[in-house]
Amino acid sequence: MAENVLDLIIIGGGPGGYLAAERAGHAGLSVTLFEKAELGGVCLNEGCIPSKTFLYSGKVFEHANNGKAFGVSADNAGIDQKAVVKRKNKVVKTNVLGVKGKMKANNVTVISAEARLAGRSGSNFKIVAEDKDYEAKNVILATGSHAIVPPIKGVKEGLESGFVLSNKEILDLETIPEKLVVIGGGVIGLEMASYFLTVGSQVTVVEMLDHIAGDIDKEVGDLLQKTYAGKGMKFFLNSQVTAVEDGQVKFELDGKAEAVPADKVLLSVGRRPSIQDLGLESLGIYTEQGHIVTDDRGRTNVPGIYAVGDVNGRWMLAHAAYREAEVAVKTILGQKDNVRYNAMPSVIYTNPEVASVGLTEEECKDRGIEYKKVSIPMSYSGRFVAETDRERSLCKIIVDTAHDRLIGCHLLGSYASELIISAGIMIETEMTIDEIREAIFPHPTVAEVIREAVFMLD
Ligand code: NAI
């Protein structure tokens, strides 16, 4: 029997876990959070935040190199990769300290240990960590995901020798590889490909699908690829990697064996929810295709057990985890709320950035939704023209003809990540096109491009 029964135990201290802890602690619940590695999870330690420090250093370097177009000369601009990594470590440390501070401020007990469910104790749940029992009335599972390591010849050995890197190790790389081959042209692959191309690597992306960037709107994905091909990135699509060995990535394209030389290989072929050794079977928690099944309030099939973030396999995005965590805590507190997944923004922090919310044109076609669309370059915004130099760009809006409402917005260009929230709110609050036309956009901002597109609708 545990000493006292807690209101809430959270397993996993990434964005889903720490935000749930913060909110629940703030609401006065007794909360204990278990984290086996570092608070902040993948996002803060080896994902979202550290990758943005790399990408920002790349942006500064690119600005220096392209300064002439803006009347600025910055001759001999260089990149010091060791300093880039050092700064990254400092930024991570600052952010992790921030999370620790929030836990303390909200009376959350943080235990550095691996925890697992161990059935029930009366009407409560039993959790075991380092041979000690804990009891809680509610549990939030927020154990995140881990990188997929495919059974490709040479990958395991490559990971051991440092020839093959995951998203984690590439962020500690203190030298810039001459030739970087990226396996998987998804979000992680493209962001890292973007950085290393900018700082001087020859970058090749090998992708098994016929397109890069996953399920984003095809028009945007094609333009992103064209943009990077124009900057010198090589792409091999429809390419199935067969081996990583002898300083090469070998693959099959149209039935033919091909190979590209590599000094380093980034493996970014997707992530898998981390559900193993969690003791799910002790409570009969449903899983499907490797993820925990939840409803739009984060509830599993077992009342009192919630799953938020990557582990529920819905949207592997930190902001999805944040919102799911909030909703789960509100549900525990007896308040009504649900996650509205139809307005989930997503961003790829390449340069130019890609940002997207709502339905793509392909999804509209698949679902038989009648739609109207407008695609215009961001150069409809004066601010964009003032601050960029021949940058390819796109603002595409999709409108549901039957209801005259915005249902999709897809952007490629500088500031896209910052302005997508406005389109997200328009979709989430079901604004009509007339209502959007009445909104006042500050001038001059790149966001005005959405207003321009809306006024071009028939
Ligand atoms: P991903 O699912 O985005 O992309 C993986 C790509 O690898 C896919 O295009 C897939 O077709 C390809 N692939 C799979 N097996 C392959 C093989 N054997 N050979 C060649 N290509 C292969 O996964 P990624 O990039 O690893 O990212 C993982 C997760 O992290 C994503 O779910 C993403 O949402 C999240 N993330 C989000 C970021 C953001 O919001 N900006 C940044 C980084 C990651």
Walkthrough of the structure:
- The chain has 458 residues and is an alpha/beta fold.
- The chain has three domains: 211 residues, FAD/NAD(P)-binding domain, CATH 3.50.50.60; 115 residues, FAD/NAD(P)-binding domain, CATH 3.50.50.60; 114 residues, FAD/NAD-linked reductase, C-terminal dimerisation domain (Enolase-like, domain 1), CATH 3.30.390.30.
- The chain is 33% helix and 26% strand.
- The chain has 14 helices and 24 strands.
- Strands 1, 2, 3, 4, 5, 6 and 19 form a seven-stranded mixed sheet that branches. It has a five-stranded parallel sheet with strand order 8-15-9-10-11. Strands 20-21-24-23-22 form a five-stranded antiparallel sheet, with helices on both faces.
- A hairpin with a 2-residue loop joins strand 5 and strand 6.
- Helix 1 runs parallel beside helix 4, helix 3 runs antiparallel to helix 4 and helix 3 packs parallel to helix 7.
- The longest helix is centred in the N-terminal third of the chain and has 25 residues.
- The protein starts with a strand and ends with a helix.
- 1,4-dihydronicotinamide adenine dinucleotide binds next to helix 7 and strand 20.
How does the SSE layout of this entry go?
Blueprint: E1 5-11, H1 15-26, E2 31-34, H2 41-46, H3 48-65, H4 81-105, E3 108-111, E4 115-121, E5 124-129, E6 132-141, E7 145-147, H5 155-161, E8 164-165, H6 167-170, E9 179-183, H7 187-198, E10 202-206, H8 218-230, E11 234-236, E12 239-245, E13 248-253, E14 256-261, E15 264-267, E16 271-273, E17 287-288, E18 291-292, E19 305-307, H9 318-332, E20 346-348, E21 354-358, H10 361-367, E22 371-376, H11 382-387, E23 394-400, E24 405-412, H12 416-428, H13 433-438, H14 448-455
Parallel strand pairs: 1-2, 1-6, 2-3, 6-19, 8-15, 9-10, 9-15, 10-11
Antiparallel strand pairs: 4-5, 5-6, 7-16, 12-13, 13-14, 17-18, 20-21, 21-24, 22-23, 23-24
Helix pairs in contact: 1-4, 1-9, 3-4, 3-7
Bound molecules: 1,4-dihydronicotinamide adenine dinucleotide (NAI).
1,4-dihydronicotinamide adenine dinucleotide binds near residues 183 and 317.
